[in-house]
Amino acid sequence: MKSPALTRAPTTLLDRLAEVYPAAECSLAHRSPFELLIATILSAQCTDRRVNLVTPSLFTRYPDTANLSQAELSEVEELIRSTGFYHAKARHLIGCAQGLMQHHHGKVPATLRELISLPGVGRKTANVILGTAFQIPAMVVDTHVSRLAQRFGWTTARDPDRIETELAELLPRRYWITTSHLLIAHGRAFCKAPTPDCSTCPIFALCPRQGVTKSR
Length: 216
What we know:
Elements: H1 10-20, H2 33-42, H3 48-61, H4 65-69, H5 73-80, H6 86-103, H7 112-116, H8 123-134, H9 143-151, H10 160-170, H11 176-189, H12 208-215
Helix pairs in contact: 2-3, 2-8, 5-6, 9-11
């Protein structure tokens, strides 16, 4: 028997979310692939709002890869302290900049393999860069995407890499970039952890969770 969570095409729900959140996009402020890469590394275990408060000073002090690659660790730590885990993040930022200078002429590469070879860059960060900076179809899986994909019945996986694979298999490539933006926007507004606000949810009529509930 087909799962109630998949009785409607996932793209129908995503199209509706696009109507609800027409301005959904990456919320990390940036003006270049370099700035987006640095901001995304900083966003680990930190809100995008906090990162956006920190990066203006950081980019004023270190406006490009060359400057950041030669930065003093203690200076970077002080500038990013409020983002948390600042010792490790500062090392990653400087190491990433050095890697870009040594292997990519100071430019941010546009392939997953090259991106994840840089210090502090995992698949999630790499996919943010590919999708947002270069418009290359990529599936970003953060806590919001994981939570909503599980609630919608699109995956039963818990591992982010597995969720990424399953969503990429489920959804057409043209949806990959926007999927994370839409799910993050909806996760912040209504489909929150630990309890979703279903009573005022604008997509409740389409929600696969409702179908699962009714089938029990």
